[in-house]
Amino acid sequence: MSSAAENGDAAPGKQNEEKTYKKTASSAIKGAIQLGIGYTVGNLTSKPERDVLMQDFYVVESVFLPSEGSNLTPAHHYPDFRFKTYAPLAFRYFRELFGIKPDDYLYSICSEPLIELSNPGASGSLFFVTSDDEFIIKTVQHKEAEFLQKLLPGYYMNLNQNPRTLLPKFYGLYCMQSGGINIRIVVMNNVLPRFMKMHFTYDLKGSTYKRRASRKEREKSNPTFKDLDFLQDMHEGLYFDTETYNALMKTLQRDCRVLESFKIMDYSLLLGIHILDHSLKEKEEETSQNVPDAKRPGMQKVLYSTAMESIQGPGKSGDGIITENPETMGGIPAKSHKGEKLLLFMGIIDILQSYRLMKKLEHSWKALVYDGDTVSVHRPSFYADRFLKFMNSRVFKKIQALKASPSKKRCNSIAALKATSQEIVSSISPEWKDEKRDLLTEGQSFSSLDEEALGSRHRPDLVPSTPSLFEAASLATTISSSSLYVNEHYPHDRTTLYSNSKR
């Protein structure tokens, strides 16, 4: 998946230009997508719900939609095409797992025209977003679609064990055949909502080789930057409270291990940063220009699987933030090194790249010219470790607890010093304690020494010249240490100990 296309910007200045993909106009692709998904999802509702079986992952349903229409399909003004649906029952389960009802799925995709997004990536894929901002629809290559089919059983198992994940949520895999051309599309969750302005967008891989946005990309209104740009712009990283940080890192670690087990590499973390501290006027202008679809039944929450829900799950602060303030749209609260309040939107993208022969060869020749550990293409285990290390040490950081003030430190050190002296005193043999008690009863006790040090209770009118509390504790430690030393080496010289105690 091209990361920059996910930032929700329609192609600027190209509204009247008709894009083509595999010699097919984008308008025809959008129309075929809506017709095909409308038919297949509607037909699926008549099938009873049951457990997903292993053979369900390999089922492919096909329907022919002629332009003049048929008994099962409506007429349309696009060329005749055949629409294939891969693993319909399995994907129906995936949608239900994330709370997407069939009616809502159809409403999001088929009720309004799809919005085409710009694609600055090298893949040449087309990206569409639904008008209610719910789903991203992307054209994929044959190898990517084939890999996703093989991935489905393991993907199913992972979602069953852990539905809280930053991995892409795949809601459907389809293929449109027309004029001998196959156009494969996948429906996914939208990582960056268009109604929330992203002041910064980054595509992060944890590598440094050629990981800087191009000049052409920088000239865009909302460019997508890369790793070296992040290290330059956000050199101190992004800060979270302890609970959020731990939940985020635990989710990333779990997701990376899943990807490593599938031998997947070259994925990215798409990170959108919304700065809350920017002027209210800017927000009001954006709100007036971008009003969510009010016709949506029930006005459900904006995204089915938000960033906060993906790392924390229901019943925690993520849902609380959504209900308390819908304007956050499920973003993860954070702070910049400047103390700015931020909302972060993120998700792992581009996971349909396996470490096949071509990728191994690509890494080999790049490693000959450059440092092999810095290039993005690498074996899955190394890639996952480098990715996590970069996120943990350079991108995401935990807000440290406030350090104790010097006065508190001093008090703590004095308390520790007193405790140490008491331990030393208590370690003296009982016999010597008895003898020492007899000697000390005739002279000055430790309590009277404390009274002298801290002020006499009998003469409140006098301002005593007392040693500091630290000196008093030091004196007590010296006495205790001297007592222990004398006890061990000079048990006969009790008079010396008594005189030391007096002083």
Automatic annotation (TrEMBL):
InterPro entries found in the cross-reference section: PInositol-4-P-4/5-kinase_C_sf (IPR027483), PInositol-4-P-4/5-kinase_core (IPR002498), PInositol-4-P-5-kinase_N (IPR027484), PInositol-4/5-P-5/4-kinase (IPR023610)
Pfam families given in the database record = PIP5K
Every PIPK domain range: 25-395
Q: Where in the cell is it found?
A: Cytoplasm
Phosphoprotein listed as a keyword: no
What PROSITE patterns does this protein's entry cite?
Answer: PIPK (PS51455)
Q: Does the keyword Manganese apply?
A: no
Extract the PANTHER family matched here: PHOSPHATIDYLINOSITOL 4-PHOSPHATE 5-KINASE TYPE-1 BETA (PTHR23086:SF34), PHOSPHATIDYLINOSITOL-4-PHOSPHATE 5-KINASE (PTHR23086)
Q: What is this protein called?
A: Phosphatidylinositol-4-phosphate 5-kinase type 1 beta
Which organism was this protein described from?
A: Microcebus murinus (Gray mouse lemur)
What gene is behind this protein?
PIP5K1B
